Amino acid sequence: MLWTIVVVLLVLWALGFAVHIGGGLIHVLLVIALIVVVVRLLQGRRVV
């Protein structure tokens, strides 16, 4: 589910460069999604 959101945000971000829809909102959502992915990857590696 998380990877689906990341892929959708990446597609919208790329479209934003071409069409200029969404403006800064897409960039903010992309940054949030990347932070969540990094946190989940770090937590997955710390399993005791």
From TrEMBL:
This is Lmo0937 family membrane protein. The chain crosses the membrane at residues 26-42. Keywords: Membrane, Transmembrane, Transmembrane helix. It comes from the Bacteria.
